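Let's inspect a concrete specimen:
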Amino acid sequence: MNNISQLLAQAQAAYHAGDWSSLIHHLQQLILVGKNEADPEYVLELSLSALEMGDFHQRWDIAKVLISLGNIAINPLIDILEDEDAEDELRWFAARILGEFPHPDVINPLVEFLQVNEDEELRAIAASSLGQFGTVAIPKLSELLKDENTRLVAVRSLAYIRRTETITPLLTVVQDSQAAVRTAALEALSSFHDERVAPVLLNALNDLAAPVRRTAIVGLSYRPELSTQLDLIRRIQPHLYDFNIEVCCVAAVALARMGDDAAQHLFTVLISPHTPITLQLEIIRALSWLESLTGLEYLQQALTQLASVTLWQEIVTVLGRIQKPELKTPATEILLQMVQATHPATTINSVKSAIALSLGQLGCTQATELLNQMQQDPDEFVRLHAIAALKKLTPSLA
């Protein structure tokens, strides 16, 4: 008996025993050693049995076999997709596998599935599968935009395609009555550097829905080259005071991407006694992401003007993450001056540990003397962090 016959016999025995793991294993081996020599219809029949009867992981594995069989698997999978009595997980897998077949016969069943199915997970996988078809699916998906019941999933499907041909249909729904549709459309459009997109994002900054404003700010944050032309700092800065804290936080990140000209705005909000600590933490990180002397100077000023242990520790932590070689020495000096000036934070063990850790990460040898002193600290964790930092700086002295 040759290998093909033996594997088929083993697969058949596993099928009759209901041993789906063994069946899948033998079918996978069969595909590897001789797919063209085996009866594809019989292999398909066995594979569909494993798909229908297996658990989630077994279905995940047999999906690869079905894909390798090619177009003969399409119609049986469509039958599963359209079977309203089939379990949801089985239909989910059918939709997912169909997305792997670049065949026009697959598009209509997936589109119809989106139209009639109300389960969010099933619609999401169908949308993802349609997205894999590229521009071929755009006309069908554009039709779905006309129906408010399928508009959101159509937008999400178009988002998966990521081709410039999707811009025009997406632009038709940026003023939709559903905030979720507006949000999804803006998110999809933000991935394109097309002249039609930026004005739409700017207009959405004043949307009544916080998720829409948030998405617009995130989209604009990836266009720092347009900062001067579109006056982005002036347009985004007011959202540091947005009613929604998530919008405030993404505004801080966006302004950091605009460079040093935005630093003063960030600092003003950071030191305000009315600013929520969540936003203050985000601004501290944003100032460090500037990767500039200006950002470091504002962080140093914040150490003297803020009175929160949490914020002190965050500043110390972000200073240790500075990556630009020319900024490592200034960042180290801020930490050393903090200790020399007996900053209130230096009496707190958690902050002292953070200082030691950051000095080690910055790797500047001028911190060696302080770290040697910190090896004698009464707190065990401070000593351990000091030793770890010294090993990075001067291994022979640690």
